[in-house]
């Protein structure tokens, strides 16, 4: 499915960005924001891969599971993007970008739960 391949590709980009931010955090002064951004990208890249695999196996409700996975992409991008822009540019991506991203990631996890509960057997 095209959406699954897109999600896997996005997860790969998120993983690469997460590793790059981890390196930047390790070598930069006062770069704790980058470590947090890295963690969110790496954790949610893995969650996207797992969600996509569960969808392919039919263990999650298709529509809800896809929304959860895309929620992980959007939420992690907002959260990590905001922290990274704050680190390098000194201002936020836009007001409440990180909390919005965090909320979207939480909703994504709740959607995974719902997708598992209502999946067709």
Automatic annotation (TrEMBL):
Residues 1-22 form the signal peptide. The chain crosses the membrane at residues 38-56, 63-81, 93-119. It comes from Bradyrhizobium nanningense. InterPro entries: DUF423. This is Membrane protein. Keywords: Membrane, Signal, Transmembrane, Transmembrane helix.
């Amino acid at each position: 499915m095209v959406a699954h391949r897109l999600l896997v590709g996005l997860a790969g980009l998120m993983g690469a960005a997460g590793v790059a931010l981890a390196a930047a955090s390790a070598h930069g002064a006062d770069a704790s924001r980058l470590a947090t951004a890295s963690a969110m990208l790496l954790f949610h890249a893995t969650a996207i891969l797992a969600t996509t695999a569960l969808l392919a196996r039919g263990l999650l409700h298709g529509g809800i599971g896809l929304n959860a996975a895309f929620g992980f992409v959007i939420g992690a991008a907002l959260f990590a993007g905001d922290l990274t822009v704050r680190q390098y540019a000194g201002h936020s991506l836009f007001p409440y970008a990180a909390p919005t991203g965090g909320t979207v990631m939480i909703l994504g996890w709740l959607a995974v739960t719902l997708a598992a509960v209502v999946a067709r057997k």
